Amino acid sequence: MSKLGSAPTLDDVAKLAGVSTATVSRCLNNPDQVVKATRQRVQSAVDALGYMPNFAARVMAAKRSSTIGAIIPTMENAIFARGLQAFQEELHQHGYTLLVSSSAYKPEIEEEQIKTLVARGADGLLLIGHDRNPQIYENLERWNIPALVAWSYLPDGQLPCIGFDNRAAMAELANRVIGLGHRRIGVISGISAGNDRARLRIEGVQDAVRQNDLALSDLTIIETPYEIENGAAAFSGLMAQDMPPTAILCGNDVLAVGALHRAQEMGLNVPGDVSITGFDDIELARIVTPRLTTVHVPHREMGRRAASELIGMLENQAGGSGKRLDTRIVERQSLGPPADS
Amino acid sequence: MSKLGSAPTLDDVAKLAGVSTATVSRCLNNPDQVVKATRQRVQSAVDALGYMPNFAARVMAAKRSSTIGAIIPTMENAIFARGLQAFQEELHQHGYTLLVSSSAYKPEIEEEQIKTLVARGADGLLLIGHDRNPQIYENLERWNIPALVAWSYLPDGQLPCIGFDNRAAMAELANRVIGLGHRRIGVISGISAGNDRARLRIEGVQDAVRQNDLALSDLTIIETPYEIENGAAAFSGLMAQDMPPTAILCGNDVLAVGALHRAQEMGLNVPGDVSITGFDDIELARIVTPRLTTVHVPHREMGRRAASELIGMLENQAGGSGKRLDTRIVERQSLGPPADS
DNA sequence: ATGAAAAATGCAAGCGCTTACATAACGACT
DNA sequence: AGTCGTTATGTAAGCGCTTGCATTTTTCAT
Question: Which of A175, A215, B28, B147 is 20 to 30 A from B77, alpha carbon to alpha carbon?
Answer without folding.
Answer: B147
